[in-house]
Amino acid sequence: MFMYQKNSEAGILAASIPFFVLFSIVLTALVASHAISKQQMQKQYDCHKVGIRLQSIYAELADKLEALNPRAKALRRQRQLAQAALLAAPTPEAKAAAYMQLKRIKTQQRLLKFQQESLQMIYRGRYLAYFAHAKIQNRFHIQHLPTKLEFEAFPKNSASPSYQPATNFKNKQRIVFSWQGKWKQQKLHGSCRVDLVKEKKWHAKIHLAKAW
Fold first, then answer.
1. Beta bridge partners of 129
2. Fewer beta carbons below 10 Å: N end or C end of the chain?
3. DSSP bridge pairs for 141
């Protein structure tokens, strides 16, 4: 009877060994999978964070430039009317008054254009400052990065142009980074894309992330 019990216990123990080995393998795989997933998620988060910040800087600029468009359009119209009034002035006094009015409008146009160009310089400076501060070149591979807000002036040679998105704006303005990482002997790769889009206002928009 005693020998039978010992043999039974030995048999149960022997049968349990494959189970414990399998359990250990599965547990190790789960731990590794969790660690890899956590690292990938952190890399993607960092990637999106800097992309959103960069696009948000130009989103503010886009809103401010577009807010000046009605003023720019009104000044262009006023200049046309002033020029027509100058040509049609019937007396020297009327011509002098029309000339002064045209001169005032030109001054306002120059001031507005200076404001538009100053805004672009200020926000481009902020964009480049954040790029350097975040050490983006050390952390990510740059696949596509706009160097400026891809807006264009129209009419092109106007003294007070309006600003609108350039042709193929979405592709020109997109930010795309890729990254690499490593967990033990396994290499990790991923990429992220952030666009600049407009709903009520301009804002950054994340594309579906890729990590593998």
1. none
2. N
3. 178
For residue 177 the two structure tokens come to 């980074």
Number of domains in the chain: 1
For all residues of the chain together, what is the average pLDDT? 84
Average pLDDT of the residues in 88-105? 96
Which two structure tokens, joined as six digits, stand for 206?
């994340």
Beta strand 151-154 with 186-198 is unpaired
Polymer length of the chain: 212
Nearest Cα residue to 155 out of 144, 168, 164: 164
Range of the domain at 163: 2-211
Long-range contacts: 80-89, Cβ < 8 Å, 24+? none
The reported pTM is 0.78
The single residue listed with the structure tokens 């731990």 is 31
Between CA 60 and CA 203 the distance in angstroms is: 8
| Average pLDDT of the residues in 35-55 | 81
Q: What is the 3-state secondary structure (H, E, C) of 10-44?
A: HHHHHHHHHHHHHHHHHHHHHHHHHHHHHHHHHHH
Angle CA 12–15–21, to nearest 5: 130
Nearest to 78 by CA among 53, 104, 111: 104
Instruction: Give the count of beta carbons closer than 10 Å to the beta carbon of residue 48.
Output: 19
